[in-house]
């Protein structure tokens, strides 16, 4: 499969690319092919991307979701709590992932070369297989600022670095796991309005979960910024959506969000209704590009979306086919 989808400019090109990839994966990805078969769907009957069936994300825990034609370059895995089965994403061409995150990051934030990137991601660094760490490692190598780097648990050093960058007027992005950012603002206070603070979500069992409004209020107050940015990504995806604030996410052109009915997973719901988040990620060339996540969301007319929470139960209703 080619990667011309990175050049998508309009909805017609997206539809064509999505359908071509669907036909390819329906034939060459054994797990997805079986799922479609059990649903009683004939791939050649699908003529619009909104009709494509979405594979429940739990299959990445129970099966190897990979094209029959390929072998993995690298395997990304989810964090998971003790005793929990990890999701694994077998990535056949890691250069596609690199191109995806580089193009998306530049689209939303400009060149990384002239940006100082600071990373506060302790729980990710302390395990193997994180796709987020792979991305941040690459971006750090591309940044030409000498103070770019990780701050594992050294919050005082991070504070001192941020103060120096503010004085220097340096464009700075701080990407951090939620609980670590909260740890920071409980110990230090900044007034750095130009700083971009990007939270990746997740308390990782370290803290009580907070609603987004409360969380962002605390972080805005602690860093002295007007908005908190966010990244929406996961082990099972090779693309990320970004939010510039207020929890409103936008996708790069090769990624699209649809919402499904929470009781009928094969039925899509209209904009502004709450539904389960389905993701089309065309960068998932050699796994599955059509994934039904366990997130609940709301979709807006312009294609932007909000993440409202997660399904209460571990299994998505009506999506237990093949999960043994």
Characteristic key phrases:
324 residues; alpha/beta; Luciferase, domain 3; 7-stranded mixed beta sheet; 5-stranded mixed beta sheet; 9 helices; 31% helix
Task: Please render the helix and strand layout as text.
Elements: H1 11-28, H2 30-39, E1 55-56, H3 59-62, E2 74-77, E3 88-91, H4 94-109, E4 116-120, H5 122-125, H6 131-142, E5 149-150, H7 155-168, E6 172-176, H8 178-187, E7 196-199, H9 212-223, E8 229-232, E9 241-243, E10 249-250, E11 255-260, E12 274-281, E13 290-299, E14 305-310
Parallel strand pairs: 1-13, 4-5, 4-6, 6-7, 7-8
Antiparallel strand pairs: 2-3, 8-9, 9-10, 11-12, 12-13, 13-14
Helix pairs in contact: 1-2, 8-9
Describe the structure.
- The protein is an alpha/beta fold and 324 residues long.
- The chain has helices spanning 11-28, 30-39, 59-62, 94-109, 122-125, 131-142, 155-168, 178-187, 212-223; strands at residues 55-56, 74-77, 88-91, 116-120, 149-150, 172-176, 196-199, 229-232, 241-243, 249-250, 255-260, 274-281, 290-299, 305-310.
- 39% of the residues are buried.
- The model is unreliable at 314-324 (pLDDT under 50).
Question: How are strands sequenced across the largest beta sheet?
Answer: 5-4-6-7-8-9-10
**Strand percent estimate:** 15-25%
What is the general shape? globular
Output the CATH homologous superfamily of the largest domain: Luciferase, Domain 3
Integer count of domains: 2
- What does the radius of gyration come to? 20 Å
CATH level-two architecture of the largest domain: Roll
N-to-C terminal Cα separation, in Å? 31 Å
CATH class of the largest domain: Mainly Beta
């Amino acid at each position: 499969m080619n990667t011309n989808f990175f050049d998508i400019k309009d909805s017609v090109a997206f539809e064509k690319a999505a359908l071509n990839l669907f036909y390819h994966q329906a034939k060459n990805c054994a797990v997805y092919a079986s799922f479609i078969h059990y649903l009683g769907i004939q791939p050649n009957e699908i003529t619009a991307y909104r009709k494509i069936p979405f594979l429940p994300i739990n299959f990445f825990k129970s099966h190897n979701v990979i094209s029959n034609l390929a072998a993995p370059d690298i395997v990304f895995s989810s964090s998971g709590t003790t005793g929990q089965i990890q999701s694994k994403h077998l990535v056949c061409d890691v250069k596609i992932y690199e191109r995806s995150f580089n193009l998306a990051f530049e689209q939303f934030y400009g060149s990384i070369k002239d940006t100082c990137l600071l990373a506060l991601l302790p729980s990710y660094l302390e395990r193997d297989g994180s796709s987020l760490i792979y991305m941040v490692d690459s971006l750090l190598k591309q940044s030409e600022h000498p103070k770019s780097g990780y701050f594992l648990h050294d919050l005082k050093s991070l504070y001192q670095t941020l103060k120096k960058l503010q004085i220097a007027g340096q464009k700075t992005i701080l990407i951090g796991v939620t609980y670590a950012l909260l740890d920071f603002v409980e110990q230090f206070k900044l007034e750095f309005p130009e700083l971009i603070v990007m939270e990746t979500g997740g308390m990782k069992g370290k803290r009580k979960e907070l609603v987004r409004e409360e969380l962002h209020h605390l972080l805005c107050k602690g860093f002295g910024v007007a908005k908190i940015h966010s990244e929406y990504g996961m082990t099972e995806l090779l693309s990320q959506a970004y939010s510039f604030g207020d929890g409103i996410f936008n996708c790069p052109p090769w990624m699209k969000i649809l919402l499904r009915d929470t009781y009928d997973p094969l039925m899509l719901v209209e904009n502004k209704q709450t539904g389960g988040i389905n993701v089309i990620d065309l960068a998932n060339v050699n796994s599955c590009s059509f994934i039904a996540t366990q997130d609940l969301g709301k979709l807006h007319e312009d294609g932007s979306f909000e993440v409202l929470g997660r399904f209460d139960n571990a299994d998505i209703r009506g999506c237990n086919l093949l999960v043994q």
